[in-house]
Amino acid sequence: MKKVLLFLSALVFFALAPEATNGALHGKTQALINRANKFGPYLGLVIPNLFEMNPLLQHPSFVPSELVIDFAGKRFRFGTIEKKPVILVMTGLGMLNAGVTTQLLLSLFEIEGVVHYGIAGNANPSLHIGDVTIPQYWSHSALWNWQRYGDGPSNELPLEENGDYTRDIGYIRFADYTTSNVTSCSSPFDNLLNNVWYQPEEVFPIDGDPEERQHAFWVPVDSHYFKISRLLEGLELEGCVNSTTCLDTTPKVTRVERGTSASIYLDNAAYRSFIYNKFNVSPVEMESAAVALVCHQQRVPFIVIRALSDLAGGGTAESNEAATFTALAADNSVKVVVEFIKILLSFPWLLREVRS
Ligand SMILES: *[C@@H]1O[C@H](CO)[C@@H](O)[C@H](O)[C@H]1NC(C)=O
Ligand SMILES: *[C@@H]1O[C@H](CO)[C@@H](O)[C@H](O)[C@H]1NC(C)=O
């Protein structure tokens, strides 16, 4: 009996531990969240890091409110853009951070839509540093099935029969990237790394049965958001850092077919060309697909706006100056986000205009 009491008192002690020590919701935070939600619904602005968030915090259209809620290592900042209530949150680098942060945002707050923005590498040789892209589809391109040496495209993958893995999306063959001439007499080239097959994510949508997986590879952004983003394409962007340093080409806003993400910093020209040719992707970066996959499963509309740096992996004169224009790219992505929100708010009017 004494032992049981001791055990129970230990439980009570842990339950009363300060809220900073774990990720469970406690009274004070819950009260702040409840109060915040009375002023929603909000647009959620999900931002990879501070140098992409700061230009928005300083933008004249952003009016901060007093309220800031810190929870589970994330800071949720409140305010308005053009009178629309918004919540800003920084994810940190990579897919895990972006997914967790987006899920927290959607689980804690009344969110009507998500705008994710930042800078990105470029895989599309017809675009330039400073161009701001709005892709229609996003994929996570680093969920892989790495095939054993000796097997090829006609061999079933392990667990393929269960529906765990598939050969539907395609693969990269490492031997195609061999450069040594040592074996050039014995064509075709071979490589022990063999093939990597791209896999769709397992997803569990909010309106599906829990624990019953579905699959998703190309996740579309919200069709309404994408449609109205066409109106951003004429937007004038800043092309100069100062009076003497300007981009070679006038930057533009452009809607593109696809972007792709992975927790991999891509600085390799061969892989960049491969994914461009295989998937027709323009921006390549490390967060958007996680935001997309969470919004897709929670059935919350979202759009992604990413300003391009130079071609990932180099290979052009532009590469040498990419660092000079990173801040300019971040500023331009913020400019497009603010303009997107203006269009979103005035869309009923625009709709009437188009019809009349
Ligand atoms: C391989 O050999 C070809 C033909 O001799 C040559 O053009 C090429 O530069 C060589 N590649 C490497 C990586 O040595
Ligand atoms: C403009 O910016 C470039 C790149 O940061 C710098 O090297 C240059 O000194 C600047 N020029 C002026 C006039 O500020």
Automatic annotation (TrEMBL):
Q: Has keyword Signal? A: yes
Q: Tell me which domain of life the UniProt entry assigns to the organism this sequence originates from.
A: Eukaryota
Q: InterPro entries of this UniProt entry?
A: Nucleoside_phosphorylase_d (IPR000845), Nucleoside_phosphorylase_sf (IPR035994)
Tell me if Signal is a UniProt keyword of this record: yes
Q: Which Pfam families match?
A: PNP_UDP_1
**GO molecular function ontology, one term from the record:** catalytic activity
User: Example GO biological process term?
Assistant: nucleoside metabolic process
Keywords assigned by UniProt, alphabetized:
Signal
Signal peptide (UniProt feature, chain positions): 1-23
The Nucleoside phosphorylase domain, residue ranges: 45-342
* Gene3D superfamilies, sorted: Nucleoside phosphorylase domain
Q: What is this protein called?
A: Bark storage protein A-like
The species this protein belongs to is Coffea arabica (Arabian coffee)
**Taxonomic lineage of this organism?**
Eukaryota, Viridiplantae, Streptophyta, Embryophyta, Tracheophyta
